[in-house]
Amino acid sequence: MDETLVGLLDRNADHAAMFDGRFDDVQDGQSPEAVTVCCSDSRVLQDGMWDNSEPGRLFTCGNIGNRVIQRTNEGRVVSGDVLYPLVHAGTETAVVVGHTGCGAVTATYDALTEGVAEPPGIRHCIDLLAPQLEAGVEALSADLERAAGINRLVEYNVDVYDFQDVYGDRRGEVHVVNVDGDRDVARLRAAHPDVDDRIRRLWTY
User: Fold this and answer.
1) What pTM value is reported for the model?
2) Could you tell me which of 55, 8, 11, 59 has the C-alpha nearest to residue 38?
3) Are residues 114 and 133 in contact, defined by beta-carbon separation less than 8 angstroms?
4) Cα–Cα distance list, 96 to 21, 36, 69, 153 (Å)
5) CATH architecture entry for 32-198
6) Radius of gyration of the chain (CA)
7) Close Cβ partners of 57 (under 8 Å, ≥ 6 residues apart)
8) What is the DSSP string of 71-121?
9) 150 touches 98 (CB < 8 A)
10) pLDDT tens sequence across 131-174
11) Taking the domains of the chain in order of start, what are their residue ranges?
C-alpha cells in the first residue's frame, strides 16, 4: 500500500481516538454556525485557521479559487455546496476565504491577460472565476508588480488568509475585506470595533 495512504490512516486512527464520543450530539443531524468556502490549496488549513476541532460547528467547502458559483441550465447560480447548509441546516453565516498567492487567481489573471493552456477541468474552474475577476483585472494599475496585482485580485471579493506577510507579520491570520458587500474600511471598523484590527485592504476600487 502507498506509504502516504498508510501515514494518513495512522493519523486517522489518532483522530478517531481523540474524537471518541464527540459525535454523539451531531450524528443524526447538523446545524453548523457557518459555512466556510476556502481554496483547496494545501497550505490553507480550513478548520485549523478557525482553531476548529468540534464536529458540527462548521460546514466546510474547498475548491481551487474558493469559488461560490456554478453553471446550471438556469445560468450561473450559487453553488449547491455553499447553499446546502443555508437552505437545509439553519446556517446563517457564509464566509469566503481567499489566500495570498492563489494559483487559481493567478491562472485566471493569466487567462484574462495572456491566455493559458490548461486541461479542461482546470479551464472550467478558470472560466467560472474569470467573470468575477475581469473588472478587477481592468482596475489594476499598469505599473503594479505582478505578485502585488495577484494579491489585489485575491482580495477583490473575499476575506483573505495571509501566509506571505502581505497584510502584516502574523502568518495565517484572516483579514476581513468585505462584509455583506461593504468594502469601506473605516465604516467596517466603526461597525465592528471588536475586530477592527483585522479589517484592512490592499486597495479600494
Assistant:
1) 0.89
2) 59
3) no
4) 31, 6, 12, 14
5) 3-Layer(aba) Sandwich (3.40)
6) 19
7) 32, 33
8) EETTEEEE-HHHHHHHHHS---EEEEEEETT-HHHHHHHHHHHT-----HH
9) no
10) 989 999 999 998 999 999 999 999 987 878 888 889 888 889 99
11) 32-198
